[in-house]
Amino acid sequence: MIDTTQLLLFISASFLLAITPGPDIVYTLTRGITQGRKAALYAAFGFNFGIIFHTAFAAFGLSAILRTSALAYQGIKYAGAAYLIYLGIQTWRHRGETMVAGKGDCLRPMTILKQTVLCNVLNPKVALFFLAFLPQFVDASKGHVAMQMCVLGFIFMLVSYPVFVALACFSGAIGNRLKSNPNIERRLKSVAGSVFVSLGLALALPDNS
Predict the structure, then answer these.
(1) How far apart are CA 174 and CA 9, in angstroms?
(2) What is the Cα–Cα distance from 150 to 183, expressed in whole angstroms?
(3) C-alpha closest to that of 120 among 76, 67, 59
(4) CA–CA distance, 180 with 182 (Å, rounded to integer)
(5) How far apart are the C-alpha atoms of 150 and 146, rounded to whole Å?
(6) What are phi and psi of 205, to 5 degrees?
(7) Would you say 35 and 175 are in contact if contact means Cβ atoms under 8 Å apart?
(8) Is the dihedral of CA 113, 158, 203, 146 positive or negative?
(9) Helix (H/G/I), strand (E/B), else coil: 3
(10) How far apart are CA 18 and CA 156, in angstroms?
(11) C-alpha distances in angstroms, 181 versus 33, 38, 92, 185?
(12) Residues 76-97: pLDDT tens digits?
């Protein structure tokens, strides 16, 4: 379905995109630092699970609605911005609850999965990116365009997931060291909350034309 040169180019581009800082990386690092490796691994899985939705939306034309409907785009955009700001405020609120005291910011696995999937899906820029990115590697002459895009989306997941697993392990190791230093943990939570709010505000700003 895709020649070797195109496949290698797609894999390289996918890797570069996976390591580009964004809400997904910030959340995964935050969860690992504040709750440990296991929680960060759930976050990594949740963000990659969200790729399934964006791939399906792009493959079957649903993402095109965001490109043609300003109302739909703005609605998803502001919902995503509000959710990021909400996560930031929650992180601020719980910054005094440290893992040392046994009352850390310990979210249940399903809560982490829900937050990460929502954070991914409620980002219209990701949806439009997939709509623009995947077709660049599709050969329409071979037919089955939607299937080709689904395969590419799956490959993107295979490339990005190890990146997030590495981030989860790295941040989890840091989190374990911070168990004996609650002051640093509180400061990092404050910084993380500020980053979430900043990302939400940035997402809510008007796009440059």
Answers:
(1) 34
(2) 46
(3) 76
(4) 6
(5) 6
(6) -65, 150
(7) yes
(8) negative
(9) coil
(10) 9
(11) 12, 20, 18, 7
(12) 778 878 888 888 888 777 766 5
Q: Determine the residue type at 198.
A: S
DSSP 8-state code for residue 74: H
Of the listed ranges 1-15, 98-112, 128-142, 173-187, the least confidently predicted one is: 98-112
Encoded tokens for 18: 């996976």
Residue closest to 177 by CA, chosen among 36, 38, 44? 36
Nearest to 117, CA basis, from 61, 43, 37, 8 = 43
Give CA 41 to chain center in angstroms: 13
Task: Please tell me the distance from the alpha carbon of residue 24 to that of residue 91, in angstroms, as a whole number.
Answer: 15
H/E stretch holding 31 reads helix 23-35
Amino acid 148: pLDDT: 87
**Under a CB-based contact definition with an 8 Å cutoff, are residues 116 and 46 in contact?**
yes
Instruction: Return the closest-CA partner of residue 82 out of 123, 52, 24.
Output: 123
One DSSP character per residue, 110-154 reads: HHHHHHHHHHHHT-HHHHHHHHHHGGGG--GGGS-HHHHHHHHHH
Handedness of CA 128, 132, 138, 143 (dihedral sign): positive
The pair of three-digit structure tokens given for residue 64, joined into one six-digit string: 């095109």
Crossing angle between the packed helical segments 145-178 and 182-204, to the nearest 10 degrees: 150
Q: Which of 44, 24, 20 is nearest to 168 (CA)?
A: 44
Two tokens at 24? 């997904």
